[in-house]
Amino acid sequence: MYFETIKCEDFEVFNLDYHNKRVIRTIGKNLNLQEYINPPTGELLRCKLIYDENEILSVDYFPYKKREIKSFKIVFDDNINYSKKYLNREKLDELFIKRDSYDEIIIVKKGIITDTTIANIAILKDGLWISSKNCLLEGTTRAKLIEEKKIIEKDITLNMLKSAEKIALMNAMIGFMQIDNYSFSV
Predict the structure, then answer these.
(1) Which H helix or E strand runs over 96?
(2) Which secondary structure element, helix H or strand E, spans residue 179, and what is its range?
């Protein structure tokens, strides 16, 4: 089973084309998500849509509160696979526990920066925003920003991360969020 996390606010559904494209990449057919998403209120909501290879299984709405993320633990895992937005996040949850007292983790796979457990990462290097070409999951916000040529794809090494001018997280709920005054530890 798979899921999509979709931002809804003021009865508007955000980035739906990108979510539809990811569903098509995941299961090979279009489920036309728009038919299933009807936000019950105008507040900021996280819509969680669960589906399998054949159909939409459930659509639920939750009030959304953004997490404060300022510190990162670097975690290494050369075998992790999260190329589809699987409902089973057991491996990500196992890695998240290793964060110790940090807010979030940054996953390094085969020497390349990938993602956090909830977002793609971008670094600002020489005036360009770069997102890892080898991210774990091709996020919808990331896809939109690449298409708009606001970020580029390139392998990001740990040294590049350490020397980055700035970092940002991006996902369907937070959009592109630059983080000031961040820290990380290996």
Answers:
(1) helix 90-97
(2) strand 175-179
Last residue of a domain, one of 44, 63, 82: 63
Strand 175-179 to 166-171 pairing: antiparallel
Exposed e or buried b for every residue in 125-155, given b needs 16+ CB within 10 A?
beeebbbbeebbbbbbbbbbbeeeeebeeee
What is the rounded distance in angstroms from the CA atom of residue 19 to the CA atom of residue 11? Answer: 17
Same domain as 120, residue 46: no
The whole-angstrom separation of Cα 43 and Cα 14 is 13
Full domain range(s) for residue 93: 71-185
Model confidence at 186, in pLDDT bands (50, 70, 90)? confident
How many domains are there within the chain?
A: 2
Say yes or no: 147 and 97 in one domain: yes
The answer to whether 72 touches 104, Cβ cutoff 8 Å, is: yes
Q: CB neighbours of 104 closer than 8 A, spacing ≥ 6?
A: 67, 69, 71, 72, 73, 96, 116, 117, 118
The pTM score is 0.93
